């Protein structure tokens, strides 16, 4: 049924697409939305995400993130899809994007492109951290708010909401208030620049194209310490030495980067724990215990 709806929508947009639908094929991989590869009669190709009408804010957030990321992207090294249209149609929400061929290969340009994105955005930002509007990390809310205080933004708008969900579900130990105060102070001593980050940068949200450019997609953006993206690339693996070398060629890491990696990745493990449970519960508790132990005498 949805493919019929997709065809109706594409057909209704002929005025700016300039062609008829030639083929519609479902694309696997998403756990929240359904995805489609559209071929048009003029040879162009589209990628479409469809979801329920109630999830329209999720697609709106994604479109806003993609547009903002493109404002700071160096297209020599990095490609980020630019939204073509965002639609409500009957009971569906639809995001139309250009089709990109996702491949695997040398990740040097992916690293360079990410570094330039972080660096160029840090030079043009208002220096505040956070995001103007409520967003999403998977199905969970990513809270809005802007502040000059990085520690408070990450702890109060990222960690604390996830910790409260996990606590309510009885997935974790609830004794974390003193730890959060310590983490706020610790992160502020780092005194990072505010950069635009992808926000959900695991290997499933990046690739290489046929021109050896890096590609990133499915963002959960906010203004943050650039290290939150670097930390997540190490959480599930999939990034090569060439990726990190390419990044460091543009903007070297600080020597103390590893001291914050676990803290930043706790956010994503908590989110996975809250969304999927299973083995993520033990992984989250183990990491939480490790961080507590490290900050016991801090």
Explain what you see.
- With 298 residues, the chain is an alpha+beta fold.
- The chain has helices at residues 2-12, 14-17, 56-70, 108-124, 150-168, 177-190, 227-233, 241-250, 258-276, 279-294, and strands at 21-27, 34-40, 45-52, 78-79, 85-89, 92-98, 129-131, 135-137, 140-142, 145-147, 195-197, 206-208, 214-216, 222-224.
- The protein has ten helices and 14 strands.
- A hairpin with a 6-residue loop joins β1 (21-27) and β2 (34-40).
- The longest helix is centred in the middle third of the chain and has 19 residues, at 150-168.
List low-pLDDT spans.
Answer: none
Report strand order across the widest sheet. Answer: 1-2-3-6-5
| Cα distance spanning the termini | 58 Å
Main pleated sheet? 5 strands, antiparallel
Order of helices and strands: HHEEEHEEEHEEEEHHEEEEHHHH
Strand elements, count: 14
Work out the helicity level: 40-55%
Mean pLDDT, all residues: 92
- Globular, elongated, flat, extended or rod-shaped: what is the shape? globular
- As a percent range, the share of strand residues is 15-25%
Number of helices: 10
Structural class by SSE content: alpha+beta
Rg, Å, rounded = 20 Å
């Amino acid at each position: 049924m949805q493919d019929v709806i997709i065809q109706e929508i594409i057909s209704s947009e002929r005025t700016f697409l300039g062609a008829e639908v030639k083929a519609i094929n479902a694309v696997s991989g998403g756990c929240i939305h359904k995805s489609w590869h559209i071929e048009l009669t003029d040879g162009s190709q589209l990628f479409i995400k469809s979801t329920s009408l109630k999830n329209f804010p999720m697609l709106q957030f994604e479109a806003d993130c993609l547009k903002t990321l493109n404002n700071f992207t160096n297209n020599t090294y990095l490609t980020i899809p630019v939204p073509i249209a965002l639609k409500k149609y009957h009971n569906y929400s639809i995001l139309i994007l250009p089709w990109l061929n996702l491949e695997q290969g040398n990740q040097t340009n992916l690293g360079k492109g990410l570094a330039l994105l972080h660096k160029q955005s840090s030079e043009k930002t208002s220096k505040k951290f956070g995001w103007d509007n409520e967003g999403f990390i998977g199905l969970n809310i990513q809270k809005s708010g802007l502040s000059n205080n990085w520690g408070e933004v990450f702890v109060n708008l990222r960690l604390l909401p996830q910790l409260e969900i996990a606590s309510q579900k009885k997935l974790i130990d609830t004794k974390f208030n003193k730890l959060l105060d310590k983490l706020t102070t610790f992160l502020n001593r780092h005194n990072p620049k505010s950069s635009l980050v992808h926000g959900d940068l695991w290997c499933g949200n990046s690739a290489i194209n046929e021109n050896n450019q890096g590609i990133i997609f499915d963002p959960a953006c906010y203004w943050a310490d650039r290290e939150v993206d670097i930390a997540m690339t190490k959480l599930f693996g999939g990034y090569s030495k060439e990726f990190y070398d390419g990044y460091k060629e543009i903007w070297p890491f600080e020597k103390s980067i590893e001291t914050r990696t676990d803290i930043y990745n706790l956010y994503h493990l908590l989110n996975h724990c809250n969304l999927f449970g299973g083995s993520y519960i033990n992984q989250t508790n183990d990491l939480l215990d490790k961080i507590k132990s490290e900050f016991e005498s801090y």
